[in-house]
Write a structure and sequence with these properties.
It is built from 19 helices and 10 strands. It is of the alpha/beta class. α2 runs antiparallel to α3 and α5 packs parallel to α10. It is elongated and about 120 Å long.
């Protein structure tokens, strides 16, 4: 994205987020920018009057109040100082409000966009993760772009009046000051381009650093990091990445600093020539001492204003490069495709996968390859296979976290890509393998399965009892309203098995409307003694519905109508438990090996 496009879109975002603060800053910047020139002019009056009155009989500052503008000039100087100090304070207030409103709005847009993706590619595609990483950093730079523009306005409003007055010295003075500033402008732009290239190249390292920070700082990894003595390992990796990133950024900054220092020689000469001209004019009697103070101050005011415009322009340019990933992320299109709806089919055919092939972004090997599988109404299918066989990937396609690269998935003869995603998922009850530990109350953790039942205590307690959580909830300090998660005030935590039971209860809450049940390792964290109780609840959920059970515990497969064996993304065996045991193939080997461990 071009920097000019980023600047335009960023300013539009800033204006829409905080129009009142922008208006206030414009007014304050105009006043603040004109202040230095007014102070210089008042200073000229004071110096000239002091020089005139120094050789006359006087009674101090107020001795000739009616005959001299000196007291009024001094009063004007004090008032201007007070006004400028007040404006600076008000500018600070407006900038703080602008920063908070702008970053808040930008974060809201990012959260809305990312959470609004119906697919999950942004969390599993390294390139998209890098874009997300840069976008999060860009949020912090967005307000700098806005405030940088504000300071550029200060420079501009200070530059214009000072420039007009310097014309009185000679037409060549402002022209010389401007021309000698051009090299710095060009060099700053090139330095910022190079800095952004390095920063973008280091996005992968910065993202990995964040991952290692999460390992070292969050509760999720705390126990094993300490038990296995992993602190030094991950801290070492973080340090190595930091040093790599820092060295790259330091190199480009150092080079840029020296180049800018070199360009400063040119601008210094541009300021020295007019200054010498004014000093010579005073010595020759063309200018008064007050003129020396005024014009010398104006020369440096013009130079300072130009520098402010250059440096803040560079900051705006850098911020524009930094915020471009925000808009790149906001412009991302969903990867889920939409096809025209077929003629409605009144018959119930179930769900069918036909010649389905899928490869994860960034991978070369298909996770699923030429899958042909149907789940008929009322049928329970067990999906088994080793880790990495493609079992969980298949469930992701059924709920449309991804669309297949090839082939088609139909529900009662209708391509699921022609169905509204939310409507599709509303017809599915699912227990995912990596179920969430939501930092919310027990009530909410249960009701996330169907939010319309969040206030139905009897219903929530009923599904809790079905999975063996009834007594656990009754013993909690606030029952259903107990916060879960020790990071919450008054919060408590559950065991991993209890969390899994809670995830199953969420799925049970969808029983009345679910047409498809997907159970991905539904009893992985539950002890064998409690497994029977949970299986009864799960069988009740699956009864009369299409059901897909993914499990490493092959005992679950025995109760399925059909068993499908995946290996390297392909279906290698299919049949009932008895048929596959008689076939004595892959399933037979897996089942007998697992059964032998219980003997």
């Amino acid at each position: 994205m071009r920097p000019t496009t980023s600047i335009r879109r960023a300013l539009h975002l800033v204006w829409s987020a905080s129009p009142n603060e922008i208006r206030i800053l414009i007014v304050l910047n105009v006043l603040y920018g004109a202040g230095p020139t007014l102070l210089l002019y008042v200073g000229k009056v004071v110096i000239d009057e002091v020089a005139r009155l120094a050789g006359t009989a006087s009674h101090g500052i107020f001795g000739k109040l009616g005959a001299s503008p000196l007291p009024w000039a001094i009063a004007a100087f004090v008032i201007l100082i007070f006004i400028l100090d007040s404006i600076e304070t008000l500018r600070g207030l407006a900038i703080d409000n602008l920063r908070d409103r702008t970053t808040g709005e930008a974060r809201r847009l990012l959260l809305t966009k990312v959470a609004g993706f119906q697919d999950i590619a942004v969390f599993e595609d390294p390139q998209l993760l890098n874009t997300l990483q840069l976008a999060e950093q860009g949020v912090e730079r967005l307000w700098r772009l806005a405030t940088g523009f504000g300071r550029m306005m200060v420079g501009m409003f200070a530059f214009v009046p000072a420039l007009l007055v310097t014309f009185a010295l000679g037409w060549w003075v402002p022209l010389l000051l401007f021309l000698t500033a051009i090299p710095a402008i060009i060099i700053h732009g090139r330095v910022e381009d190079r800095s952004w290239e390095v920063e973008r190249a280091q996005a992968e390292n910065v993202r990995k650093m964040r991952l290692y920070e999460r390992v070292l700082l969050t509760e999720l990894y705390a126990k094993e990091v300490r038990l296995f003595g992993l602190r030094d390992l991950f801290l070492g990796r973080w340090t190595k990445l930091f040093q790599t990133t820092f060295q790259a950024m330091r190199a480009v900054r150092t080079h840029g600093a020296w180049v800018v220092v070199g360009s400063s020689v040119v601008s210094a000469v541009g300021a020295a020539v007019p200054y010498a001209f004014v000093v010579d004019g005073v010595l020759r009697g063309r200018f008064t001492p007050g003129d020396l103070a005024l014009y010398a101050g104006l020369i440096f005011q013009v130079r300072r204003s130009l520098e402010l415009l250059i440096y803040e322009g560079a900051e705006v340019y850098r911020a524009a490069l930094g915020v471009s990933p925000i808009f790149a992320l906001l412009d991302l299109k969903p990867r889920l495709s939409v096809v025209a709806a077929a003629t409605p089919d009144s018959g119930r055919r179930g769900i069918c996968l036909s010649n389905v092939r899928f490869t994860y972004p960034g991978s070369e090997r298909p996770a699923l390859d030429m899958i042909n599988l149907c789940i008929r109404p009322g049928e329970t299918v067990a999906l088994v296979g080793e880790n990495g066989a493609g079992k969980t990937t298949l469930t992701k396609l059924l709920v449309r976290f991804y669309d297949p690269d090839e082939g088609v998935i139909t529900w009662d003869g209708r391509d699921i890509r022609s169905m509204d995603v939310e409507e599709l998922r509303d017809r599915i009850a699912i227990v995912v393998q990596d179920y969430a530990h939501f930092p919310a109350t027990v009530r909410e953790n249960l009701a996330f399965g169907d939010l319309s039942k969040v206030d139905q205590d009897d219903t929530l307690l009923a599904v809790s009892r079905e999975v063996g959580l009834g007594e656990v909830i009754e013993k909690l300090p606030y029952g259903l309203d107990t916060p879960l998660g020790k990071m919450l005030d008054g919060g408590t935590d559950l065991s991993e098995g209890q969390w899994q039971r809670l995830a199953i209860a969420r799925a049970l809450l969808r029983k009345p409307k679910a047409e498809l049940v997907i159970l991905d390792e539904p009893t992985a964290a539950i002890d064998p003694q409690s497994e029977y109780e949970i299986l009864q609840a799960l069988r009740g959920l699956a009864r009369g519905r299409m059901a897909l059970i993914v499990s490493h515990r092959l005992s679950l497969a025995r109760g399925a109508d059909r068993v499908v064996v995946l290996q390297n993304g392909r279906i290698v065996e299919e049949g009932s438990h008895e048929e596959l045991m008689a076939f004595k193939g892959v399933y037979y080997a897996m089942f007998t090996q697992q059964a032998s461990s219980y003997v």
